[in-house]
Amino acid sequence: MSPPPELVSKNRFLGFLIWQTFTSTTIYFLTKLFLLAFFTTPKFSPSQLCFSLLKFFTFTFSNLLFSSSLSILSSPQSLPYASPLQLAAGLVRFAFVSSPAEPEFRRRALVSARFVVFVVVAGISGALSVVCLCGFDGFELIARLGFRGFVFGVLYGLFDLYKKRWVLKFPIIQRPLFYSFKMGLPLAIKRALKLSNVAYLFLSVLQVFLPEQFKSGGTMGQFITEQIILYIGSFSVVFCWELSHHLHQVLHTKRFLFAPPKGSAAAETNPSEPLLAALEESIPDSLPQYLAYLDLCMVCENNVDTWRRAAFFEETGETYKRVVAACLRPLEQLASNLSEGLEGCFVDKAHQLSNQLQSPTDSQLDSRHCEPLNNFQKYAWCARAVASLTAWSHEEDRFGVAQLTGSNAAVTSTLISSLLAVEAFMGKKTSLQPQHLMGPAAIKWNTPNTGRRDVVTTKKQGGPQHAKAYAMADVLRTSVYSIVSTFHDEMFTSNKAGLFEKDWVIKSKPLFGTYELLVQKLHHFLDFRAN
């Protein structure tokens, strides 16, 4: 029996800590052997042995602390956070106005608090790790190394936040764990060298402005030896952290099979229930839900687990409707959120020139309406899965549940409506094109000014949100084309019979656009001229 979704995350977290402990222990002993062989004189005594064991366990604890904070901070999507100015304004309003904080502000403030905790933990982990690895004696030397390690860890934590390395990035191709780890090992070494070099130079410059007790003393030879040991220790610490990042990505983004073992009693009776439970009962936008959508997408697209895909087309049609609903729900949310953000952007054509003169920072779209695009990966899986499942129903649906349940029309309508919303967000005209303005070879003549209102956005096309919108539009367009290519003959026949709109477009008001606009867009796909 497949474990519950919550247990999947816990098992992967524990597995990550075990593998991280193994790698950090290996790096610790290799570094110690290198330093003992070339830069220090070994001393063997019971007290020295106890002191060495204490340093080893402290180093292991510091790395476990860093790995735990990374796991707590990590998320499958980029989370919105509150800036320091927003936090200060919220605290002032709470202290003097005594008004309850808004849920959105509390959510952003909680994310910002997690950022601060991660940076502080990185600093503490850096201080403990550098002291344990470099192994100097004396309170002043330990204090100096601890300070440099803390600054070093804070810089690394800030770099992680700036690069958003806490966001889980699911690979396009799923590989075995050992192969994925081996592929990322050279990159981890290269990045550890770069970061340790930059941090060492920064700390060297910072040391000039520090008091005398934080500066190195002794002879020139002792100073050079101390700097070499410090650099080697700093590189080892960064290398441990880089491997932790890589292991965290590899272990948490690997596909999980939400299905009973093949040949078991559960596989013969209801093999889709674990997957449906993960899709419907998991916390929204959590790691188990992302893993469930990844599993669903691979089942629908690939020919490996055909027995699981065949179970979707069971005779009653309930399983098929639940799978389609689970895929369409996020896409409907995407279209709805973008539609709400675009409602305030309807302006007369007479005001378009003034809008174009605005700076990109004066965009009329509020930032919270751009946040749905942060879930690009989940939306892409949903679109690809439901399109592939609809296409496979042409051959594998023995009972005709896709047509009898009306899912085909719901799928095409939702995909096209979402595509229109994303194109409008990108600034592309999505208005209805009169048929008499279409020339031969689908050439569009200039449209006269009809006084109609259009959506105008001033999003900077080189920005990250535009890149995500462009990729999302490409996924949606490809998904619709996969359905049209499979059902092209049936669509062409129903179009001649006048039943095309009835079979493939729902009559209810779409989340974005109009019924006529959806029909015209689907005709463009049928003629293979939608772009």
TrEMBL record:
Compartment annotation: Nucleus membrane; Nucleus, Nuclear pore complex
Pfam families, A to Z: Ndc1_Nup
Top-rank taxon, per record: Eukaryota
TM annotation in the entry: 16-39, 51-73, 116-139, 145-162
GO cellular component: nuclear membrane; nuclear pore transmembrane ring
Keyword Protein transport: yes
GO terms, molecular function: protein-macromolecule adaptor activity
Membrane-topology annotation of the record: Multi-pass membrane protein
Keyword match Transport: yes
Annotated keywords: Membrane, mRNA transport, Nuclear pore complex, Nucleus, Protein transport, Translocation, Transmembrane, Transmembrane helix, Transport
Single biological process term from Gene Ontology: nuclear pore organization
InterPro entries named in the record: Nucleoporin_prot_Ndc1/Nup (IPR019049)
Protein family (similarity comment): Belongs to the NDC1 family.
PANTHER family linked to this entry: NUCLEOPORIN NDC1
Name of protein: Nucleoporin protein Ndc1-Nup
Organism listed in the record: Populus deltoides (Eastern poplar)
